[in-house]
Amino acid sequence: MTAAPNRPAYLDNHATTPPDPRVLAAMRPWWEANFANPGSVEHALGREAEAAVEAARAHVADLIGAEPREVVFTSGATESNNLAIKGAARFAAAQGTERRRVVTLATEHKCVLESLRDLAAEGFEPVFLPVRPDGLLDPESLREALAVPTLLVSVMAVNNEIGVVQDIAALAAMARAAGALFHTDAAQAAGRMPLDVGALGVDLLSLSAHKLYGPKGIGALYVRRRPRVRLAPLLSGGGQERGLRSGTLPAPLVVGFGEAARIARLEMALDEGRIAGQRDRFLAALEAGIPGLRVNGDRARRVAGNLNLTLPGGVDAQAVMAAAPGVCVSTGSACSSASVEPSYVLRAIGLPEAEARATLRIGIGRFTSPAEVDRAAAELSRAWNGVRHRAAAE
Questions:
Q1: The pTM is what?
Q2: How far apart are CA 245 and CA 243, in angstroms?
Q3: For all residues of the chain together, what is the average pLDDT?
């Protein structure tokens, strides 16, 4: 899959990835030849659709080392995160627990932060832990927070802006020792690094297909079966997905998710090695064109394709992007792109507002070519120099 020469160079793979052609091919029959509802098991076509859904569920489970029955399909990671956090808190409260503390990081995805704020209105105590300047959590901060009886801890495996990888296994062990459930948003981790829910020791884990070359509109939540994690569902309905997520399953999307997970499990190591090479090539070319460029976040503990770069000279990143129409990059999370405020993630790691506004997020992916990398670096360098000189002349 190669981008046409006249198409912009796409380096925004944290916002979304292009669907793998093999995923599109796997989905197509379930739009056309068999469009049956997988819940209609009374007839042959319905049973075929159900079988395809269950095969896909097994592929998703294999990607994270889970049992297929521990995988609950949702519309994406936002819904999975809401179901994990609100569902766990509300179920526990209904059972009479006195634990009200729910802990997360200040750098989490918006849907996690807003879920905790919603729970605050229901009498829970949200705690937002700071991170170090490298974007990683100091385990002592979590240990101190857990001194108060805690219901749930939620920590993102890979940050969606600065790409840093948290030590989920160590943090989950701390939460478990304190009697708290542990949830991780692994949307940016799945397909980019090995995941095994048993080795990680997590109770709940969120996924999204469109972050690993699958379709948009489908995700999953891992819900540990032994010992069993109980959730209150967010939706009322027909009781699909073990009663946790009612609604007709979109068989084509589920099949696409399963195929994306299957490919990721088999090709992840090859993908990430190639992506790391492209990242290093891009960074070297950009540093040559923009002296003084700074990489945000821990340089070693990050996923291969991520670069979060602060431009020198206080040059506004939005202005650089406007001057480089042949490159698709971003200034932060796609979910926050409409905001006029600088990235809260960058502010949380200590960047002043001016530097946060001068920062680009780069996401290199499976289909990024060397030609795209070279073209993007050259165009961004020209744009930065142009914007800088215009600003100096004003």
A1: 0.96
A2: 6
A3: 96
Q: Tell me the pLDDT band of 392, cut-offs 50, 70 and 90.
A: confident
Tokens standing for 247?
Answer: 């609604």
Q: Specify the amino acid at residue 310.
A: T
Query: How far apart (Å, rounded) are the C-alpha atoms in residues 235 and 246?
Result: 6
Residue 3 confidence (pLDDT): 57
Provide the pLDDT for residue 2. 58
Amino acid at 149: P
Q: How far apart are CA 25 and CA 108, in angstroms?
A: 34
pLDDT digits (tens, 9 = 90+) for 173-188: 999 999 999 999 999 9
| Alpha-carbon span 136 to 61, nearest angstrom | 28
Instruction: Indicate if the pLDDT at residue 335 is higher than 80.
Output: no
Phi/psi at 219 (5° precision): -150, -170
Starting at the earlier edge strand, list the strands of the sheet with 150-154: 71-74, 219-223, 204-208, 181-185, 150-154, 101-105, 125-129
Domains and CATH numbers, the chain: 9-19+268-388 (3.90.1150.10), 21-262 (3.40.640.10)
Q: How many other C-beta atoms lie within 10 A of the C-beta of residue 206? A: 32
Check 1, 51, 288, 335 and give the catalytic one. 335
Say if residues 343 and 109 touch (Cβ distance below 8 Å): no
* 365, 305 Cβ separation under 8 angstroms: yes
Q: Is 335 in the active site?
A: yes
Give per-residue pLDDT as tens, 48-100. 999 999 999 999 999 999 999 999 999 999 999 999 999 999 999 999 999 99
* Residue 363, token pair as written in the block: 């996401």
- Provide the token pair at 237: 């309905």
Sequence-separated contacts (24+) of 42-49 with Cβ below 8 Å:
49/251
Radius of gyration of the CA atoms of the chain, in A: 22
The sign of the CA dihedral 48, 49, 52, 53 is negative
Query: Distance between CA 73 and CA 218 in Å, rounded?
Result: 7
Query: How many Cβ atoms sit within 10 Å of the Cβ of residue 346?
Result: 27
